[in-house]
């Protein structure tokens, strides 16, 4: 799993911000795919620590 940053712009106000998603990679018969596991609203964490956070969040902790 990994964390993806997606830039977004509010269409009404024009304010831009980032949203963060925990994403899981998997393979199916059509090839590799990605599935959004969780949306993280605010992430005040250095980008170098994102892999550690993604590894700390497991399917067991989500159930």
How is the topology of this model organized?
Layout: E1 2-9, E2 16-28, E3 31-40, H1 50-56, H2 59-62
Antiparallel strand pairs: 1-2, 2-3
The gist of it:
The chain is α+β, with helices and mostly antiparallel strands. 17% of the residues lie in helices and 49% in strands.
What does this protein structure show overall?
A hairpin with a 2-residue loop joins β2 and β3. This protein is an alpha+beta fold. The mean pLDDT is 87. It has helices spanning 50-56, 59-62, and strands at residues 2-9, 16-28, 31-40.
Question: What structural class should be given to the helix and strand makeup?
Answer: alpha+beta
Helix and strand run: EEEHH
Main β sheet profile: 3 strands, antiparallel
**Mean pLDDT over the full residue set:** 87
Terminal Cα span? 16 Å
Give the strand content.
over 45%
Radius of gyration: 14 Å
Give unreliable regions as ranges: none
Widest β-sheet, arrangement of strands: 1-2-3
Question: Which geometry do the CA atoms define?
Answer: flat
Number of helices: 2
Number of strands: 3
Helical content class = 10-25%
Summary keywords:
alpha+beta, 17% helix, 49% strand
